[in-house]
Amino acid sequence: MPSELRHDPIQKRWVIIATDRSKRPTDFLADHAGLAEGPFCPFCPGHEDKTPPEIAALRANGSAPNTPGWRVRVFPNKFPALMIEGELERKGMGIYDRMRGVGAHEVIVEGPDHKLALADMPLEQLVEVMGTFRARHEDLLRDERFKYVLIFKNHGATAGASLAHSHTQIIATPVTPLAVAVELDSARAHHHHKERCLFCDVIDQEIDDGRRIVYLDDLFIAFTPYASRFPFEIMLAPRQHRHRFTDVDQAEVAGLARALKDVLSRLKKALKDPPYNFMFHTSPNTETTHKRAHYWQSLRFDFHWHVEILPRLTKVAGFEWGTGFYINPTAPEDAARFLKEIEL
Amino acid sequence: MPSELRHDPIQKRWVIIATDRSKRPTDFLADHAGLAEGPFCPFCPGHEDKTPPEIAALRANGSAPNTPGWRVRVFPNKFPALMIEGELERKGMGIYDRMRGVGAHEVIVEGPDHKLALADMPLEQLVEVMGTFRARHEDLLRDERFKYVLIFKNHGATAGASLAHSHTQIIATPVTPLAVAVELDSARAHHHHKERCLFCDVIDQEIDDGRRIVYLDDLFIAFTPYASRFPFEIMLAPRQHRHRFTDVDQAEVAGLARALKDVLSRLKKALKDPPYNFMFHTSPNTETTHKRAHYWQSLRFDFHWHVEILPRLTKVAGFEWGTGFYINPTAPEDAARFLKEIEL
Description:
The structure is a homodimer.
Chain A: E1 4-8, E2 13-17, E3 56-59, E4 70-76, E5 91-93, E6 96-100, E7 104-109, H1 123-141, E8 148-155, E9 167-173, H2 178-194, H3 198-209, E10 213-216, E11 220-223, E12 234-238, H4 250-271, E13 276-281, H5 286-289, H6 293-298, E14 306-311, H7 318-323, E15 326-328, H8 332-341
Parallel strand pairs in A: 2-15
Antiparallel strand pairs in A: 1-2, 3-4, 4-7, 5-6, 7-9, 8-9, 8-13, 10-11, 11-12, 12-14, 13-14
Helix pairs in contact in A: 1-4
């Protein structure tokens, strides 16, 4: 069968799916996600003085900040990409534009155990981690300088991690990133024409079709996108329409933890602990930029938050950089089938 | 000094430039560009029967196709991402779109010497290679099914190369890739407002400023873009307005070879043979889609072909995938200075 071009209605991106020689999980000699371990881990309990002072932590009653006894701990990145202080100082430079690198860059250590990966943590711990994601996100949205808050994880050296102790990062940026702007444009145009949420339509079609579903319960769906860029790429989203991540209630926080644990465990078992990234895509910080309630209401259907999970199994080469479209050697229908067949 | 956000007017992309801890060439422990060598190279003279039959070759008088004696040799990729035969068969699948994977995928072996990298080839050989790029590009543009022709190179395993013998690839695709569409949109909007070419304006400003120039002669400029995504990223472009790559005359082919050799040699020496990709960005195949001469004339200023050169020194992690914007630890002004100071 010849290869096939598929178009993603959200990212407006064509992908080449090489269906004739679809690769199985065993074809990917994953760079082991493990990292060369230094002798010292600044994220372990007892080393709290080796990180900047904590912003938040879940603690057993009575333990003091920046001491052991925490279950989840949040602090500023010691080497931040963006600085929390100062104004943006936007400025034109002829044809170019610049502003100061103002933003937030935080680290969330997901648990005290140095060896435990997110996929292997008990469900209750994952629920606390997801709750911490929501709380930090909510807090950062209050800052009017920040247009976007990105929660992301690098697991394994190939995926960009530099420390092995399981952690997630949050970066708040003063501009809406291009990748999110493209998704917003798609979703707005769809809503303008059809008065429906684009993501809800995609989810409906995926449930009707069924071939790409990896996980499904009352609250969440995880599926391999029709035009997946990468082998075993997964989108995880709430089934009910939810504009932004911070709209989730406590039941959905627990549901997210359950779905994420299921999917990460399947990937880990199927692909032998592959390096991966996940990123939360949510709507930009429109509340601080649009004060009119009417306009704001109409925007509630222009996005639907979701998590992208990208195992890093293939190299991104000149073709991908040169075009922004991708050659995927594993059909998403095959990837979903492999993952569903895994026994957890 | 705090980090800085910079906006690229062509790619409409924000980049974080971490100016406070700008990295020098020696800070990048480049994955060596070298590849583990198999015992057998299908690209070497004498092994012509191990590749698909050649499409074109520069040959000494008298040598037959698919035998030794060539200086540059072109043949279809043995494992093509897209197939040359058949119609597109566009089809909607509910909210999704698909078409058959029709296109061309060719390999250009740049010389008979297995060990010689492009940067180290004699200038005359590079002129022949660039002339071959143009000839193949021109030929593929005649096929009305193809909207875009991408010339790209993967040098080194990290950059996606799988064979060490120096070669470039060409892929012709039936759709305009997203990355090019974004650049086209920017350039069209600029021309619509100002009746000038966006790229010409950028080049003018770079020449006036001077701090980011790596190479400059009468015909070509190479500079580190103001909002470089990666350390030591380079844009190489003709100084005179040229809509598409195939518009270049023979003097410009020679000029391109000279500029590319200079820049690749500087990168090789400064960064110890880093892995890199280059990609030719040119306008889509509008001639086959727009028959009206008037409309066509107005489009001659909506693009300006150029080469992107991307050394692969940093890992792309979750932040970049999640947002489409980049953290660059080397200010482009510093990168240009390091490269200019190299003695060739």
